[in-house]
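Dear colleagues,

For the upcoming journal club I promised to circulate an example of a predicted protein-ligand complex. I picked one with acetamide because it came up in last month's discussion. The inputs are reproduced below in full, followed by the predicted structure.
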Amino acid sequence: MKISVIQFKPEFGDLEGNFHKIASYSESIESDILLFPELAFSGYDFSGRDEAMDLSEEYLKGYTGKLQEISTKLNKIICTGFAEKSSDRLHNSCCLLFPNSDYSTTYHKVHLFFRERFVFDESEKGFFVVNYPDSEINIGPMICYDWRFPEASRTLALKGADLILCPSNLVTKVWHISTPSRALENKVYLAVANRTGIENRNGNELEFNGGSVIHGFDGSTISKAGFDSEEVITAEIFPEMTRDKSFNEYNDIFTDRRPNFYI
Ligand code: ACM
């Protein structure tokens, strides 16, 4: 099974142009799983909630619906970040689209970063894993700043994830210290799709740092993108190899846990 991570620079507010880029990569890349960055249709640095509402869509009603059609037609799992509205609620979301759309869903970012708290609503769904029988893979989504909470990837691993997908808009590089450990300590694959480029909005300059990665379940970096290039990175993964959490005849990273000593 192959996964590809697509690193690019979404143009702020250009919903149609960004979607076309995502759709054309989705159609042309010969991989089973495709991962795009956070808020990849709209861009990131909204002036406020009203602007984000204008650049949002209802799940499967707009561009996410068109991506679902591509997923089903070409038999690819597609995950991308987008601003999701649902009646008066607004979430920093990612859709996780499966060829069999009965399994498709959206994740609402649990840990909101910096001014996102003035734009988006807090998640009520929390973390979950989708068990997709047709590809025999269990996928758990999280978004960007969720990386700073080891509880996020731990929860996804305990819920059975083989692969964690993390669409991101990261403005630092410190996360590279952390993500290999999240893969290693949970024995899961972990893919981060970061964006590139600068957004200069509201008197505020944000530089996004690329460096998208695919980590193996041993904490290795199987594939890594440059810091400012538009790039596709690809890796072969073996989901079933993540499921035995023992690493010698006496130790197992899940059954050895002592949760009564943790807070
Ligand atoms: C982030 O959560 N976009 C840094």
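Two points we might discuss: The mean pLDDT is 98. The first strand starts at residue 2 and ends at 7.

See you all on Thursday,
B. R.
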